[in-house]
Amino acid sequence: MTEIRDRIIQIVAEQAMLDPSELKLEMSPQDIGIDSLGLVESIFAIEEAFDISVPFNANEPEKSEFDISSLGAIIGAVEKLVAEKA
Amino acid sequence: MNAKKNKGERPPKSPRKPGKVKGKVKSATKIARTVLGRVIMGRHGNGMRRVAITGMGTINALGRDVPSTLEAMREGRCGIGPLEFRDVERLAIRIGGQVRDWEAETYFNRQQIVLYDKFTQFTLLAAREAVAQSGLVFEGELGLRAGVVLGTAAGGMNTWDENYRTVYEEGKNRVHPFVVPKLMNNAACSHLSMEYGLLGPSFTVATACASSNHAMGLAFNMVRSGAATVMLTGGSEAMLCFGGVKAWEGLRVMSKDACRPFSATRNGMVQGEGAGVFVFEDWEHAAARGADILAEVVGFSMSADAQDIVMPSAIGAERTITGAMLDAHMRPEEVGYINAHGTGTAANDKTECAAVAHAFGHHADRLMISSTKSMHGHLIGGTGAVELLACIMALRDGVIAPTIGYEEPDPECALDVVPNEAREAKVEAVLSNAFAFGGLNAVIALRKV
User: Fold this and answer.
1) What is the CATH number of domain B299-447?
2) Which residues lie below 8 Å from residue A24, measured CB to CB, with a gap of 6+?
């Protein structure tokens, strides 16, 4: 599980052009400085990294089954998707 | 195919001489400017020519000609449905405004088909209808003074897609010799010039979702300035193939079920395909030959947001809407209908409504604004052309095309969006909005004849 968390933090940090140590789990994408396009790109990178399909529509992010409210929430959602795949 | 059976076209009375115009209308200049630039005869006070629309043609998910398309718009019919093409099962997005049961052989011979991508086929079909309606025959001087300016975002996307398959998926090392002339963005424009012998200024513009509005705006300015007597203009798109839709999927802005512009329940855009082509003609030329003038093109404005590659800007949109009215010498209160860009995405619709609210003030609550993309889908580079048909229908027939799929009001889109059912209303002036990815805006203004 820490492997998943570290990989996601790395992806998000790269997108935000920050050092992974600067990210905290309670931060929202906005806090991290990721806009809607950055979010879409991060989700793509996550899908590629874990070979999963993330249900996310940029038109209704809050209605999406995939919780993107914070970095921690994203990690939790990805862990779930990875577990479902296995 | 020239429309030879139609009544012959008379040559212009005299060759255009730039110096001549000014003196001729000198006495009228002052009056014309005070009466909002509307004019006496076929010229504006500043010597600019008036621009008539004398022909229109289309093919899209709603119909293969203008009458069937307008009928569908009047009935609020939806042309969006399950996509049908190779590998569609590998897509997450499987709906679109597709031209159903398309068989190129019905309209073109074998020699043409090897050169015409679908976007060219659509263009030529729409142009046949438009030119036939105009009654023009491009012979002699008129051919020299007529051109084509078209919009497309992706040009021959189907040709790219098919041939990438050939070399990458099937591993072949040889492609058909005409791949390049078939896929190039200007192919439709060139074939149109060849079909009708149009020898004047001809080119294609690509500004994503604003392509055909930019094209029509340029055509308008070319006729208005006297650079051409007739321009065939509009746009075309045929992106509904595996690669085309797969690329759009990536952005995660597409809806899986429907295009519901302005509705609180909207969840994205739906792609369409097809073409719209119009005949823009020097008013005096059209009047002299007794042509049926469908509407007058009176203004155009374009601008760049210079802000974001995908997110729209309300300020940029507002500037362009206002610019088109200024160019048309049109007061905001005159505008009865706006054909919205209205993509059905969360971002576009609220931004566009904010822009309209700012540009029109109190009048924003009195005008009607609808998105016909809910019916024919988003034709990307061809969309403004098909949407101009709804504008002409509003002016000519007094019928406002609805925004279908509307389920629930959105406080951020609190305008009269003509939900679900067409409405009868008399309008004197209309605008058509296009706000493209890349922040490129193009708004065109028409008046009733």
Assistant:
1) 3.40.47.10
2) A71
Catalytic hit among B341, B353, B391, B413: B341
Chain A environment of B347 (Cβ under 8 Å): 36, 59
* CATH number for position A19: 1.10.1200.10
Measure the CA–CA gap between B391 and B410, rounded to whole angstroms. Answer: 24
The closest of B340, B347, B255, B273 to B310, measured between CA atoms, is B347
User: pLDDT tens, A17-74?
Assistant: 999 999 999 999 999 999 988 999 999 999 999 999 999 988 887 777 789 999 999 9
Residue B288 tokens read as 């002299």
Alpha-carbon distance B254 to nearest alpha carbon in chain A (angstroms): 8
What pLDDT is recorded for position B41? 65
* Domains B51-288 and B299-447 agree in fold: yes
Does the pLDDT at position B5 exceed 60?
A: no
pLDDT of residue B162 exceeding 80, the answer is yes
Q: What's the domain count of chain A? A: 1
Question: Closest partner residue to B267 among A37, A53, A59, by Cβ?
Answer: A59
Which of helix, strand or coil describes residue B308? coil
Q: CA-to-CA distance for B281 and B300, rounded, in angstroms?
A: 16
Tell me the C-alpha distance between A56 and B418, whole Å.
30
pLDDT digits (tens, 9 = 90+) for B382-395: 999 999 999 999 99
Say what percent of chain B tops pLDDT 70. Answer: 91
Domains of chain B, residue spans: 51-288, 299-447
Distance from CA of A32 to the nearest CA of B (A): 19
A59/B311 CB distance under 8 A: no
Domain span including residue A54: 2-85
Region of poorest pLDDT, from A67-76, B38-47, B74-83: B38-47
Q: Which of B177, B89, B161 is nearest to B118 (CA)?
A: B161
The CATH number that domain B51-288 falls under is 3.40.47.10
A57–B311 CB contact, under 8 Å? no
Gap between the Cα atoms of B268 and A57, Å rounded: 8
Residue B378 designated active-site: yes
The yes-or-no answer on residue B285 being catalytic is no
pLDDT at B45: 78
Predicted pLDDT of residue B46:
81
Any catalytic annotation for residue B209? yes
Chain A contact set for B308 (CB, 8 A): 37
B311 touches chain A (CB under 8 A): yes
Q: Does B268 touch chain A (CB under 8 A)?
A: yes
The predicted complex's ipTM stands at: 0.84
Q: How far is A59 from chain B (nearest CA, A)?
A: 5
